[in-house]
Amino acid sequence: MQGPILRGRFGGVFLCAVLFVMSACSVQKPDSGFDSSKSSGNKPPQSSATQKQTSREKEPVRVDYLTALMDIVNPEIYIYKEKRRLYVLQSNVMVRDYPIGLGLHPSGDKENEGDGRTPEGDFLILRKDPASQFKQALVLSYPDKKHAERALFAGMISLPEFKEILTAVDHQALPPGYTKLGGQLYIHAGGAHKDWTRGSVALYDSDMDELYKIASSGTPVHIRP
């Protein structure tokens, strides 16, 4: 299993090195829609928090994969589904880059339980599970407010269910997983050789060992198309 890992990592290093020479290496997906020059005047205005996050993602980052684990103390995780990559950033420096596997139907945002899609949005790691069925897992704060609002307006969840989700989000607690939105969104081990999960993000076991040490409760996780 080490072969695919090494190829993935060195591929990521080579790609970032090329981009860094040309301009600056950025985890920004070229066609992700965060480029303000491509924005449409018909789009609704972004909140200040979204604008701040968008601005940060557009900033070029440096690359330093040799940063020691003990020196990664305030990380943020960025997942780009189309690229099948998970990036760990700290203070605008990319310190880790891992290949990933996604849900069986990865395209598009998650809409309901069982659709096989990996949700898109901004989440938090709520807790670390050292005894999950995949050896190690990071539990994410899905469903979030965005998914709950969309489901409420579509008639998928009830108003009490909506309020329960919002209460959990406000208290950074695990949202209920019994609604039609589903739940139990993880980053876990098991392999990044293909898209095979029910919607979670999967890493090779050795990469998950490392990420499990890096991440902690409250670590932000940004999942992009």
How would you portray this structure in words?
With 225 residues, the chain is of the alpha/beta class. It has one domain: L,D-transpeptidase catalytic domain-like. 28% of the residues lie in helices and 19% in strands. It has 5 helices and 9 strands. The protein has helices spanning 2-22, 48-58, 145-153, 159-170, 205-214, and strands at 62-63, 76-80, 85-90, 93-99, 121-129, 137-140, 186-188, 201-202, 220-224. The chain has a 9-stranded mixed sheet. The radius of gyration is 17 Å and the shape is globular.
| Number of continuous helical runs | 5
- Helix share, percent: 25-40%
Task: Give the overall silhouette.
Answer: globular
Secondary-structure content class: alpha/beta
As for the number of domains, it is 1
Distance between the termini: 27 Å
CATH topology name, in short, is L,D-transpeptidase catalytic domain-like
Strand order across the biggest sheet? Answer: 1-4-3-2-9-5-6-7-8
Query: Mean pLDDT score, rounded?
Result: 80
What integer value in Å does the Rg equal? Answer: 17 Å
> What is the second-level CATH architecture?
Beta Barrel
Largest sheet: 9 strands, mixed
